[in-house]
Please model this.
Amino acid sequence: IDAVINNAGYGQNGVFEAITPEQIQKQFEVNVFGVMNVTRALLPHFRQRKAGLILNISSGDGRFTLPMLSLYCASKFALEGFSEALSYELSSQNIVVKIIEPGGTETNFSNVTREEFAHNDTLTDYDAFVDAANTMFVGMVAARLVTADDVADAIYEAATDGTNTLRYAIGNDDFKKRILARQQMPDQEYIQFIK
Model:
């Protein structure tokens, strides 16, 4: 084994108060703990070879947040932090860690996310907020999404470019602007922009 691609993941969406403890656990089991378990299983092999590549599929939501994605963002922030810190440790063993950050992809991911959407009919205080957030999401989805082939090309580039580049963002211009805004804007200015 020369490389591993940790690609399992789904988005647990909805207002946090509507998300059950079981859904929280499941989100982290799939998006974080699964990656850790697969990585741990391969590290002895990679250390023995003094080489290896770990590609973790994250999301733009691991770099910036959006409303009603608190659990998904939390899991992807955890994956980003784990991957970056791990990259420092494993560089001593000639093992490279890279993060792929798709931003809106035309796959079955969106269908699963809709099926898993957390809703609680008794939480009517959020109705106006949810309507406004849904309008924002409709606008985002109307923008060109990247295809699975686009993401596969980014994964191939990361796997074969021979660099130690940590992050590969793949998405439309709006997505790339959002990452740039989060990096460059002061916290309060960015938070006000999202609100």
In short: The helical segments are 21-49, 70-91, 109-116, 127-142, 148-160, 173-184, 187-194. The chain has a mean pLDDT of 89. The CA atoms of residues 93 and 164 lie 13 Å apart. The chain is about 55% helix and 15% strand.
